[in-house]
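User: C-alpha cells for this complex, please. No commentary.
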Amino acid sequence: MTNRIDRRVVLRALIVLVVAAAAVTFLGSLGSSAVASTPEVASYAAGATSDATAGITQANTIHAEAVSDDGSTETNRYLQQFVNGIVFGLLLALASVGLSLIYGTTGLSNFAHGEQVSLGALLTFFFTTQQTVSIPFVPVEFTIGWPLIPSALVAIVLAAGTGWLQDRFLWSPLRRRRVSIVQQMIVSIGLSLALLNFIQWWFGAERQRLSTSIDTRIDFGMFEVGQSTLWSVSISVICLGAVAFFLLKTRTGRATRAVSDNPALASASGIRVERVIRLVWIMATGLAAIGGILLAIYDNAAAFDVGARLLLLMFAAVTLGGLGQAFGALVGSLVIGVAVEMSTLWLGTDLKYAVALAILILVLLVRPQGILGRAERVG
Amino acid sequence: MSDAPVIVHADDLYAGYLPGIDILNGCSMEVREGELIGIIGPNGAGKSTFLKSLFGLVPIRTGTVKLGEEDITNKRADDLVKRGIGFVPQNNNVFPSLTVAENLEMGAYQRPKMFKEQMGRIGELFPKLIERKDQRAGSLSGGERQMVAMARALMMNPSVLLLDEPSAGLSPDRQDETFVRTREINKTGVTVIMVEQNARRCLQICDRGYVLDQGTTAYTATGQELLKDPKVIELYLGTLGA
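Assistant:
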C-alpha cells in the first residue's frame, strides 16, 4: 500500500478521468443515434441505470425530463451525471476499500464481499422496518421499528461481527492449514452463493426500503443533490478519511501496511500478523456494511442481490486503482463511478458495466500496476 | 571457545518445509554469548533452513532449540522477537511501500518506546539511513535495503541476531561493507549467527564456523582454523583458499 497520495497520483487519476470521459464520449457519439437520440430517452436511460446501481433517484429523473427543452440542459445533464458518478464512486469506495485491504493483507480475492454489502443494508432494514420480522430458524415474529440511525449502527456492528466470525472460524484455519489462495478464493465463491441464498431466504427477493421519508433535493444551480445523498457522501468521506488516518498515522495502521507488503517479514519484526488480519476483516466487513446502508439510502431501497451486482464493479475499482492499494480502491471507485454514470448519457444501460470494464482494460494496458500501484525496484 | 555462557543451543534438529521431507537431518549448534558464528556449506546443504528453524519459520519435527535455559522450539517468530532474537531474511527483507523510518518503527513494534531510543544507535551504525528516513524503502538499492533490514532487526535491541546471507546479490564493495557492519554490530555485544555463501569472507570475520553438509553439521572450528582446513579449502573455498 502506498503511504501518501502525492500530486502525481492526483494528476494520474485526473488523466484517467479525462481519458475515460473522452472514451465514453467517443463511444457515445458512435452509438448515440441508436440508443439515446432524444433528451427524454437519455434522461430515462440515466434514471434506469441509477435505479439499478444506486444512480439518481426518481425525483432526479423527473427533474432531468422537466428541463429537457432548455438549452442549458446538456451541461446540466453532464454535470449532474458527473456529480452522480462521484457520489456513486464514493459509496462504492467504502465497499472496495475493505476488499482491497483483505486482498492486501491475505492475498484473497473475496467473492463474498458483495454479500457483506447486502447484509449491511438488509440488517438495517430488519431493525428499522415497521413490518413484522423474524430470525431464521426461530418461529417467532416480532416488530422492531427502531429509527434509522440506531438500526444502522447495530447493523454495522453485527456485520463487522460477521467479519470476526468468518476470520475466526473459516479463513484463519484455512490459512493455518496452508490452503492455497486459489482454493480459498473458490471457498469465497461458495460462501458468496450460500450467503446470497441465505439473505434472499431471510429477507425475500423484493426491494426493501430503509426509509419512507421523502428526500428534499438541494439545488446547486448546475446540478442538484438529495439531502440524504449529501449526508451519505459526508459519512462516506469521513469514513474514508478515518481509514486513511488509520493506515497512515496509527501504529496499527502502519503495521497493516507492513503485513500487506510482506506478512513473513512483519511476523519476523514482531507484528502479530493474525491479529492484524482479524482487525482488517472486522474493518472491511464493517465498511462494506456502511457502504451497503448508504447505497440503499441513496437508491431508496436494497434487494438481496445489491452487493452481488456491485461485486464486479468493486473488483474493477480495486484492480484499476492498484491491487492491494487501499487508496487505489478509492481512486478506482471514483473513476468507475463516473464512467458508469456518465456512460448512461450516451449508451444503453445494459452497457454500463461494459464501459467500466473497458476502462479497466484500457488503463491496465497503459499502466499494468493500476493507477496508484508502483513498479518496485528489483535488487 | 570462550567461557561465556551458552546463549543458543540447538540439539539434533530434524526439520523441513513439507510433511515427511526433512531438510535438516540432525543439526546441532552451541553458541556462546557475544560470539559471531558463520554457517557455511554447499548449495542445498540446509543452511538457510537451519537458520529459519531456529527462528520458528520452519517446523522442527524432532530436536530442541534453547535460548539460554528456555526451550524455544517451534515458538512463533513474533514471540521470539519479544525474547530477544532478531532475524534478517535473505530476500524481501524490507517493507517496500513504507518509508525507512516506518520500516524501523515496525522493528520496534512490540515496544514503541524503544523506537526513539534506538534511533540514536542506528544513526551511529547506519548514518545514511537517517538521511533517507523519509524515502520509501522500495526505492532503495540492494545495499541500502540490507542496511534497513539489519537496522530493523536491531530496533528491539536483540541479544541474538540471525542473518541469512546478508551479502547475497551485493557488489564486492557493498559485501565488504556488510561484513564490516556485521562485525561492528557484534562488537556492541550482540551475538550474531550468519549464514553465508561467501565462505571465505565469512570465515575471516567470524569467531567460529559451522560447516553444513546434506542437512547435518559436518564439523565446527574457529574461523581461522576452517580457513586453513584442507578439506574445507577443497570443498568450499577452492584451491586459492588460504
